[in-house]
Design a protein that fits this description.
The protein is mainly α. α3 packs antiparallel against α4 and α3 packs parallel to α5. It is globular.
């Protein structure tokens, strides 16, 4: 039951114009199709992961330095970060990966962009690259509960239940009341039981 939903949710506004598979979309109705529920209204059991934003960075760490371009930092609904989020929610993980990659190239100290890139790599089954992106995000803001949870979900997608459990427990130790982490631990136990039953 690893298809519980997207690895993580984003809260951003839909762009009014967007290029999807070579066509220009301009209607609000088409944009509404790409919208996901806000993290505040999302059901943790439906999402399977921790919502973004990551929360405040540790003291003295800025995940978004002021000198970076607003084009890559989430200040514009058509920037690479927000387009990556939009395409990720729509299930277009290859296009999401391209936008997140551009975002980290333009703002290499943006932990949210690195986390998005890691999640896109997870969905593309490029786990080697996902691990590198998670490590980059943690180098910027440290092992936050959100990043640990998402990295645990990555291991769960690979059926590496021991590492997934380790990451989820580390995330839960930092945020014991987080419903996304609790849900992922339950999914992990169910997946492990189903895996043993199939053997």
């Amino acid at each position: 039951m690893l298809t519980a939903g997207p690895l993580w949710l984003f809260g951003c506004t839909a762009a009014k114009r967007d290029v999807t598979q070579g066509t220009l979309r301009e209607s609000a109705a088409e944009d509404a199709k790409l919208e996901a529920p806000s993290p505040a209204t999302a059901d943790p059991q439906a999402t399977g992961s921790t919502p973004v934003p990551l929360g405040p960075p540790p003291p003295g760490v800025s995940p978004r330095p002021e000198k970076q371009s607003a084009r890559t930092l989430g200040g514009d609904p058509n920037d690479d970060l927000n387009l990556g989020k939009k395409y990720f929610r729509a299930g277009s993980f290859g296009i999401a990966e391209q936008h997140f990659r551009k975002a980290v190239e333009g703002a290499p100290r943006d932990a949210e962009a690195w986390t998005g890139l890691a999640a896109a790599y997870d969905r593309l089954k490029r786990f080697d690259l996902a691990d590198r992106a998670y490590n980059q995000a943690m180098a910027i803001v440290g092992p936050t509960p959100e990043i640990l949870n998402n990295h645990g979900y990555s291991y769960m997608l690979r059926a590496d239940y021991a590492r997934a459990r380790e990451k989820f427990l580390a995330a839960q130790a930092k945020d014991p009341t987080n419903p996304y982490i609790r849900n992922n631990l339950e999914l992990l136990e169910e997946s492990a039981r189903m895996g043993k039953a199939a053997q």
